[in-house]
Structures are given as structure tokens and as C-alpha cells.
């Protein structure tokens, strides 16, 4: 969670500070300054999504620091929905192929989170540790 949060926040900052670099990272050719057509709102949408990425990244880092398992579980289905929507956008021609990477990022993140939560749940159910309360008890982390 913390790694995803740091990456999301960092990529959000890149989008805010160097939008052309962010577009290039996603496989989109940057448009030179002054060459955008009237009504082209690409940079506005990139700014909005970059700011959302910064905020989301901070939320993920804070949730990781608090060991907020409920938050971790909530992210799984929503990230799978994001994967589905972004992938369908590429498949249906609504978005260019470079956008598929964003969907894959979300899908892999959702699966990794689900697998980690499942493993920890199984480990905790076996009663590891002296207190029998699992990993959270061993680390003196309050449960949520």
C-alpha cells in the first residue's frame, strides 16, 4: 500500500510539474507549446487527474502507516473496476493503446493487495505469535 501510494503521489507530481513528461510516460506524444487547438483541454484533465493521484497517494500512505486493513480491502474491488473501465476504453477505441498501462497498473495492484490480505488473514487465523492474535498483535498495532 505504501509503495503504491508513493508511486501514485510521485507520478501525480510529475503530471503537475511536467505534463509532457507524464504524457510521454503513458506513451502519448506530447504536443509542443502553442500547438494545441482551441478547445483542447488535455492539460486541464491531466492537471485534475494528477492532483487526484497526489491525493490518492497520500491517502494510501497514511492508510499504510495506520495499518488500516478495511481501507486496503475497499481498494480491491474499486481498482478492479478501474482496470475494467480503462481496458474497455482501449479495446473500444475510446482511448489509445498507451492508456492500457494505467488499467494494468490498477489490475495488478488490486490482485497484489487481495493476495497479500488473504495471506495475512490465513496467517492470522492460524494463531501465530504468543498472544494468538496474529501479526497485528505481534507488532503492537491496534486493530481497526
What would you say about this model in short?
With 144 residues, the protein is mainly alpha-helical. 70% of the residues lie in helices and 0% in strands.
Essential attributes:
mainly alpha, single chain, 6 helices, 144 residues, disordered C terminus
Task: Spell out the blueprint of helices and strands.
Elements: H1 2-17, H2 19-25, H3 42-66, H4 69-91, H5 100-125, H6 135-138
Helix pairs in contact: 1-2, 1-3, 4-5
- Which range does the strand content fall in? under 5%
Helicity, as a percent range: over 70%
- Give the tally of β-strands: 0
How widely separated are the two ends? 16 Å
Give the overall form. Answer: elongated
Low-confidence stretches: 130-144
The biggest beta sheet reads: none
User: What's the rounded overall pLDDT mean?
Assistant: 85
What does the radius of gyration come to? 19 Å
What order do the helices and strands follow? HHHHHH
Number of helices: 6
Structural class: mainly alpha
Description:
- The protein is mainly α and 144 residues long.
- 70% of the residues lie in helices and 0% in strands.
- Helix 1 (2-17) runs antiparallel to helix 3.
- The chain is elongated, with a radius of gyration of 19 Å.
- Residues 130-144 have low confidence and may be disordered.
Amino acid at each position: 500500500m505504501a509503495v503504491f501510494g508513493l508511486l501514485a503521489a510521485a507520478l501525480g507530481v510529475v503530471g503537475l510539474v511536467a505534463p509532457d513528461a507524464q504524457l510521454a510516460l503513458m506513451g502519448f506524444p506530447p504536443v509542443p507549446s502553442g500547438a494545441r487547438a482551441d478547445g483542447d483541454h488535455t492539460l486541464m484533465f491531466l492537471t485534475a487527474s494528477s492532483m487526484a493521484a497526489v491525493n490518492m497517494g497520500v491517502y494510501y500512505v497514511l492508510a499504510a502507516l495506520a495499518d488500516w486493513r478495511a481501507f486496503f480491502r475497499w481498494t480491491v474491488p474499486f481498482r478492479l473496476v478501474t482496470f475494467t473501465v480503462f481496458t474497455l476504453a482501449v479495446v473500444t477505441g475510446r482511448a489509445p493503446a498507451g492508456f492500457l498501462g494505467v488499467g494494468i497498473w490498477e489490475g495488478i495492484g488490486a490482485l497484489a493487495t487481495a493476495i497479500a490480505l488473504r495471506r495475512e488473514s490465513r496467517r492470522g487465523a492460524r494463531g501465530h505469535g504468543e498472544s494468538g492474535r496474529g501479526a497485528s498483535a505481534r507488532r503492537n498495532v491496534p486493530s481497526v
